[in-house]
Amino acid sequence: xxxxxxxxxxxxxxxxxxxxxxxxxxxxxxxxxxxxxxxxxxxxxxxxxxxxxxxxxxxxxxxxxxxxxxxxxxxxxxxxxxxxxxxxxxxxxxxxxxxxxxxxxxxxxxxxxxxxxxxxxxxxxxxxxxxxxxxxxxxxxxxxxxxxxxxxxxxxxxxxxxxxxxxxxxxxxxxxxxxxxxxxxxxxxxxxxxxxxxxxxxxxxxxxxxxxxxxxxxxxxxxxxxxxxxxxxxxxxxxxxxxxxxxxxxxxxxxxxxxxxxxxxxxxxxxxxxxxxxxxxxxxxxxxxxxxxxxxxxxxxxxxxxxxxxxxxxxxxxxxxxxxxxxxxxxxxxxxxxxxxxxxxxxxxxxxxxxxxxxxxxxxxxxxxxxxxxxx
Length: 376
Description:
By secondary structure, the chain is of the alpha/beta class. It has two domains: 10-104, no CATH class; 108-291, Rossmann fold, CATH 3.40.50. 40% of the residues lie in helices and 13% in strands. It has 14 helices and twelve strands. It has helices at residues 10-21, 27-37, 40-53, 63-75, 90-93, 126-141, 154-165, 189-198, 216-226, 240-250, 268-275, 284-291, 336-343, 347-359; strands at 79-82, 101-106, 115-119, 145-148, 171-176, 200-203, 229-232, 254-257, 279-280, 334-335, 363-366, 370-373. The strands form two sheets. It has a nine-stranded mixed beta sheet, sandwiched between helices. Strands 10-12-11 form a three-stranded antiparallel beta sheet.
């Protein structure tokens, strides 16, 4: 298991995995617990007491289950990266609330390469598939790590193109929505294995997790967060690829799109991105020139107020005495700021109360810093 910038003991690494896999612990509560109690080992000790105050009984994830997971990761030749580790990808760590733990298989040195995400439609046209492959081949030959999601269509072509061009120092990173050992779609089993052997495979979900619809926005956020810029080759309006592009824009990264015919609905998403401020690109050289010497100030003006997949961890310190806020909450999402205003309590006391309710399974967190009681 990979540790933090300072050496992470095996016991603490085990405890971190167990904490994140425990019931009702998400990225926000995980970060709050680590910050408040100093270690995952200490947080696990107090979880039952915290939850009892929130009105429930609590048992952390079973140790045997975590031991089985770790054994499965080792069998696969994979390993864990923790959010504060020296080998955790630097660009991803810049996000407001990065994934606390990643499972990776392959060459993590690719995280240090200049990086470009290439994404697009699953039901892509033949021309767009060819273009995606050529973009990725050219970028890999120029030393870039090409990042995509191992989906059908554009993603598959991008990975294949990058694998063909990696002799020049580039490579490819595949980010998947399920566990590191789960292949989706099934026909990409051979490709996924090749990406893991010759490039790098990245997963946020535990081994054995089948990809569900709710996992893909998180996968898309990792793709956007790992890359200096995102290129959308072909996409229909409201597609997952446009979500990735918007997330890249929100993270202050470059957003690029390949124009297409207005007669093909699969081009409408890219044309819309360009209209909204994404940079028009037509070949790998355009992309490389745009990203060369990127300093964090993108030329693209594409921005859209998009609620984050993960609510950013508030600055407020947790307090020992939680605020009495149950009467202010309902099943309709409300902002945490509004709860603080209406309760008259400190932000820290409100955060403590929310944490207790979440761990007890009574609170649901929504995008944009909003919360609600769990229905039923």
